[in-house]
Design a protein that fits this description.
Order of helices and strands of chain A: EHHHEEHEHEHEHEEHEHEH
CATH class of chain A: Alpha Beta
Number of domains of chain A: 1
Number of domains of chain B: 1
Strand order of the largest sheet of chain B: 1-9-8-7-6-5-4
Largest sheet of chain B: 7 strands, parallel
Structural class of chain B: alpha/beta
CATH architecture of chain B: Alpha-Beta Barrel
Strand content of chain B: 15-25%
CATH topology of chain B: TIM Barrel
Number of helices of chain A: 10
Distance between the termini of chain A: 13 Å
Radius of gyration of chain A: 19 Å
Distance between the termini of chain B: 17 Å
Strand order of the largest sheet of chain A: 1-10-9-8-7-6-4
Shape of chain B: globular
CATH class of chain B: Alpha Beta
Oligomer: heterodimer
Helix content of chain B: 40-55%
Helix content of chain A: 40-55%
Largest sheet of chain A: 7 strands, parallel
Number of strands of chain A: 10
Strand content of chain A: 15-25%
Order of helices and strands of chain B: EHHHEEHEHHEHEHEHEHEH
Number of helices of chain B: 11
Radius of gyration of chain B: 19 Å
CATH topology of chain A: TIM Barrel
Shape of chain A: globular
């Protein structure tokens, strides 16, 4: 089967869950009560993904706050900072590495197992990559970007192995920070390789919103089977680069912009997929949004995913008709 | 040799903190997005938050303050939005950070319609007891981050210069005593672009009585430094944390105007020892034969949570006082 559809990671939290998280932070509800809401919201997103016919599912990260802080909160040797601005009116809490990093046990495995039991479709195991964990943390302990990244890598390697042992066939290790410093691509490759080497699963890395002209084609050395890229926000301009230097891995291709309220038309998404097909064969092309959708409303996220799924179906039907 | 040392922040200051009170602007913007608050309410919230930013800088004992740039969407598009000839596009990573700017796109000839930064400057000055430093994105950085349809960065930096000079003139007319031009993109250049030299002269001619400064950050400028020191600025602000590579060249230099030394790390929560910072300040002042230096943060304090930003303000003030602080 070709032109599979998937999602990058997060879905927005419904208002009821947002309220529950606020109450939990104030000590007004228990962790069990919050988990109930997280499970309910997760179940809704799994049902939604099945309803629209997505091929490879995600759990939607309803139980995570920030993608880096979530892992840091579950490790020894870290604390969490106050709010720091990302862009516009978006803020997040950053990990502070204050001591030797240690993992006392699996972090994401129970969630993955719970969700995978709900569906026959594969659910991706989702990790934040070691380079990104390092780059998005305040390091008060290691004093060396490499040492800090490698410490995170050893922990995430154990987490990825635990996911694979639990049965995860698709494991995504997000590295959105990889474009931050082009000169550190070797460190991204080294640390990501520690996580993915020998893993009995399809390995993916997602990255977004960077100047990939500086990193391409070097980024094809990333030790993963599939690279998931934001394409629509940047006007699909990377396609020209891919014509020049062929994209040799699987490509998950972002066809909807996650940073606009505007819902793309099906015709526009079909056109984007067709443009991608001019440079990547369908068996190596996956269709998904530019990035996680947690910054959109539930309605916007659903509308964007529906358009994505319908457009992919239409293109897939066209390809089948030609065979 | 006695060294006079003044302290202040480089440019922006965190606009939110962790208390409900510190969330005013964030919540007002969210309410506006939901159609529940007006632009006027957002403007009022920005003024309140700017007042708090000024107050925190003054309470820490700094010698100059900024308005915290609390009304700026980001360091680049805020200026582009105020000029004619730009549209505002998608997200673009801001240097090597996990923050993003909206990328300006050139849509036509660039013109200065009306002052962009003056109202916020005037408000800060009304509430401040210390001098307020006004900050403006420089033409090189603005051009380097704009989507240009076939136009060269150099040509666009020249095109937008008159509009930015008009903004400097407007700030000077409003009584700004300190105006800083931010050119972080210069850290990516091996030699000083002619357009930056030309822009510096044009700004100097428009600054009136204000002290005019240039700030470069997000890296070192060891090869650029001699040329930067020749530019007609009244102070030069350098990032000496991420840009520590500048230090050997800096120690060999004889600056004509005061240096503002970015020795306090604005990108890491780790707190510096003020006496160690003061020691470095003294050592650089001695090496450069400087009787007057400034100490500042290496970069924008928006990269830190508010509580640590406050700590960094205190480190600046303590280090300056230890060297020879006060106006």
């Amino acid at each position: 089967m070709s032109l599979l559809t998937t999602h990058v990671g997060s879905f927005p939290k419904p208002p009821e869950l947002q309220r529950a998280r606020t109450k939990f932070s104030k000590g007004e509800i228990t962790a069990e009560a919050l988990r109930e809401k997280e499970l309910a919201a997760t179940r809704e997103w799994i049902d939604f993904q099945e309803e629209i016919g997505l091929d490879i599912l995600v759990d939607g990260e309803q139980y995570r706050g920030d993608m880096a802080a979530y892992f840091a909160e579950n490790l020894e040797g870290t604390t969490t900072s106050g709010l720091v601005r990302s862009y516009g009116n978006r803020y997040y809490k950053k990990p502070i590495v204050s001591g030797e990093l240690r993992r006392s046990g699996p972090i994401t495995v129970e969630w993955w197992k719970t969700v995978q039991e709900w569906t026959d479709k594969p659910v991706k195991g989702m990790l934040t990559g070691p380079y990104t964990m390092m780059d998005w943390s305040f390091d008060e302990h290691y004093g060396s970007r490499r040492e800090c990244a490698l410490a995170f890598a050893r922990i995430l390697r154990d987490e990825a192995r635990d996911l694979a042992a639990a049965g995860a066939k698709w494991i995504q290790v997000d590295e959105p920070a990889l474009s931050a410093r082009a000169d550190e691509l070797p460190l991204v490759i080294e640390s990501l390789g520690i996580v993915t080497r020998g893993l009995p699963a399809k390995t993916i890395t997602h990255t977004c919103f960077g100047n990939y002209e500086q990193l391409y084609p070097g980024m094809l050395q990333l030790p993963v089977d599939q690279i998931d890229l934001e394409m629509s926000n940047s006007g699909l301009d990377l396609l020209e680069l891919f014509r020049k230097y062929p994209f040799t891995k699987e490509l998950a291709f972002g066809v909807v912009d996650v940073h606009t309220h505007v819902i793309e038309s099906k015709a526009l998404v079909v056109e984007r997929i067709q443009r991608a097909l001019q440079v990547i064969p369908p068996e190596r092309l996956y269709i998904d949004p530019d990035c996680g959708l947690k910054t959109r409303t539930v309605d916007e996220a659903k509308a964007k995913m529906r358009v994505l799924a319908e457009a992919a179906r239409e293109v897939r039907a066209g390809l089948a008709a030609k065979e | 040799m006695a060294v006079r040392c003044r302290a202040g922040v480089l440019n922006a200051y965190p606009r939110v903190g962790d208390t409900a009170e510190d969330q005013l602007l964030r919540r007002t913007l969210a309410r506006r997005d939901a159609g529940e608050a007006t632009d006027v309410e957002v403007a009022r919230a920005e003024e309140t938050v700017a007042e708090a930013a000024v107050q925190e800088q003054e309470e820490a004992g700094l010698d100059w303050v900024t308005d915290g740039q609390v009304g700026w969407y980001d360091p680049v598009s805020h200026i582009a939005r105020g000029l004619e000839g730009f549209a505002i596009g998608g997200l673009l990573r801001w240097f090597d950070t996990n923050t993003y700017i909206r990328q300006p796109e050139r849509t036509g000839p660039v013109r200065h319609r009306a002052p962009i930064t003056v109202a916020a400057f005037e408000h800060a000055r009304r509430v401040a007891r210390k001098p307020v430093k006004a900050v403006l994105a420089g033409p090189w950085t603005l051009a380097a981050h704009t989507k240009l349809d076939g136009i060269r960065t150099e040509a666009f930096a020249e095109e937008i210069l008159p509009a930015l000079v008009a903004e400097v003139r407007a700030l000077a007319a409003a009584g700004a005593t300190h105006i800083q031009i931010d050119e972080p993109s210069l850290t990516l250049e091996a030699t000083l672009p002619r357009e930056v030299r030309d822009a510096s002269e044009a700004f100097a001619a428009a600054k009136g009585k204000a002290e005019l400064g240039l700030a470069v950050y997000f890296g070192g400028v060891p090869t650029l430094l001699p040329a930067l020191l020749e530019l007609p600025y009244d102070f030069l602000s350098l990032d000496l944390v991420q840009g520590a590579a500048t230090l050997p060249a800096l120690r060999r230099s004889r600056p004509r105007a005061p240096l503002h030394l970015g020795l306090v790390d604005a990108r890491n929560t780790r707190l510096e020892d003020p006496s160690t910072v003061a020691g470095t300040l003294r050592e650089i002042a001695k090496a450069t034969n400087s009787s007057e230096v400034g100490i500042t943060t290496s970069n924008s304090l928006e990269f830190l949570p508010r509580n640590r930003a406050r700590d960094k303000l205190r480190i600046l003030a303590m280090a300056a006082a230890s060297v020879g602080g006060g106006a």
